[in-house]
């Protein structure tokens, strides 16, 4: 069993410093790794990223993150990723990392993702350059997610995005803004490679539970949705199905990042 | 350009809450009913909650602001979901 903690949209900054840390104190009692589903900052500044880094640095479990749209607002996403990486956080953008935790292994593939809409109700790469650019960006990041998932060489794969791959977890959001909340291309990538779980954030008014068309469980962990510091998903791998007594707490992470240009 | 049509005022406020650096909140709903504006959603701190009222009052000083936005909870989860 692999115990996965996840939260997104924490939107930290100077005025919210230390907000999550008390709840993270007992994290190893609940989970073997922590996923951060983007929008870690409010304005995407390096000052806010420092608050994020300090909040999640030095935890006894591995921390794997993707950035969100807020983390891009100040146009320094690469510097934010580098800063978080310096603090021991695995930041994924079209990459995967394999974590080996006391014999149980899990691979996490991550991309920010993007909007575009959902099957039959989405934008097309047609017409003005701005429209083509918008849609092609989503196509590109979805392809990178598929590549990153395929690169994982252990049976348990998890997809981590900021934008949503499905509409299920957007219930509660206005229908009109669905195209800005996610894309079915992310779900297609997840279904193509296969995954045990897909985690995303971004949709503050959405709902937690969903499923891709291919049957992969999707969880929206935006903090206003989950209403706690993080949610925990106990993932029973194919070799451990039904074994709920196993514990991977205290395992060592062995990340193997695979860059995807 | 200013418009008294409520739909445009609500749209303007929504945009302002997203784009004003004090708020930068895309997850707050703005509902206009007569001279009253209702703000709904959750933000990360009490200070950010107060900034919402501030930005709305600056833009639409004649409206009565009802700030129903909450500060998101940060407690430890009490349960885990089993996925097999």
TrEMBL record, chain A:
* Positions with biased composition (Polar residues): 244-261
Keyword vocabulary terms for this entry: Hydrolase, Metal-binding
Q: Where is this region: Disordered?
A: 239-261
**Which positions fall inside the Calcineurin-like phosphoesterase domain?**
2-204
State the superkingdom: Bacteria
Q: Which Gene3D superfamilies match?
A: 3.60.21.10
Name any Gene Ontology BP term. lipid A biosynthetic process
GO terms for MF = metal ion binding; UDP-2,3-diacylglucosamine hydrolase activity
Alphabetized Pfam families for the sequence = Metallophos
List the record's Gene Ontology CC terms alphabetically. Answer: membrane
Protein name (Swiss-Prot/TrEMBL): Predicted phosphoesterase
Q: Which organism is it from?
A: Streptoalloteichus hindustanus
Automatic annotation (TrEMBL), chain B:
Enumerate the InterPro entries for this protein: BON_dom
- Annotated BON domain residues: 5-73
Name used for this protein in its record = BON domain-containing protein
Specify the species: Streptoalloteichus hindustanus
Species lineage: Bacteria, Bacillati, Actinomycetota, Actinomycetes, Pseudonocardiales
